[in-house]
Design a protein that fits this description.
Blueprint lengths: L2 H10 L3 H4 L17 E5 L2 E4 H17 L9 H27 L6 H12 L5 H10 L4 H22 L6 H17 L7 H31 L2 E3 L2
């Protein structure tokens, strides 16, 4: 997947968990290196091609942050590899569970998200060029968008309404303030930033709850890592 598509997915909220599935596997029935499983989730295989695709996406994300993957130690590279497999396993778990629980996404929601993706490009030609560069077709992209929406809806259902206290928002502000001071920078007053800080506190709490959901699913389901 190109860096252009990677950055767009990040902007509109499509998780890197799902990006790992945006790749073309080898022919079915042939035991090639591409479609050898790197893990199984309840007997469902995750092919190496998906692992390689997500690994490249992760490396691209690091590069955008100014981190040179080639300069990483072997231990760091191994840790990144483990994280990639975990992301693929988590995606499979969440998708299987959302489907089993009857979560559905209507076509209108998928259409709207697809328009968000297309809207990030200057015109249709640029969009098609990006698809080609990423070795994707629109049908495959649409399928991944639908799956991401399924997972998001499942998580939202389980997490429910999240509220944060004044003190939790204040804590986020203090963290920003401390970071700014260490860099000899200034930030606005608490009241000026309160709305944005509240959203960040909510996002952090949602992430914590999502991790708890995934951990429970991993305990209850059959997972086998093969690399």
């Amino acid at each position: 997947m190109s860096k252009r598509f990677l950055s767009i997915f990040m902007v509109i909220g499509i998780s890197l968990l799902v990006l790992g599935a945006c790749s073309n596997s080898g022919e079915k029935g042939q035991e090639t290196e591409e479609n050898k499983a790197v893990a199984t989730v309840n007997g469902e295989e995750i092919p190496r091609s998906e692992y390689e695709s997500l690994l490249k996406d992760t490396e691209a994300m690091y590069a955008q942050q100014g981190i040179d993957v080639d300069s990483m130690t072997e231990e760091m590279k191994e840790e990144m590899s483990v994280q990639v497999v975990d992301q693929l396993v988590n995606t499979s778990l969440l998708l299987q569970t959302s489907q089993a629980e009857g979560i559905e996404v209507d076509e209108k929601s998928v259409d709207e998200r697809m328009e968000q993706v297309k809207g990030q490009f200057e015109d249709e030609e640029k969009y098609q060029e990006a698809l080609k560069e990423s070795k994707l077709d629109e049908e495959t992209l649409r399928k991944q968008v639908q799956e991401d929406l399924l997972i998001t809806q499942y998580i939202d259902t389980k997490v429910g309404q999240i509220e944060v206290s004044e003190s939790e928002v204040q804590t986020v502000y203090e963290q920003y303030k401390e970071m700014a001071e260490s860099q000899k920078q200034e930030i606005g007053e608490f009241e000026e930033m309160k709305a944005a800080l509240e959203q960040e506190a909510i996002s952090a709490k949602k992430q914590e709850k999502t991790i708890e959901i995934i951990e429970k699913l991993r305990e209850k389901n059959q997972i086998e890592v093969l690399i």
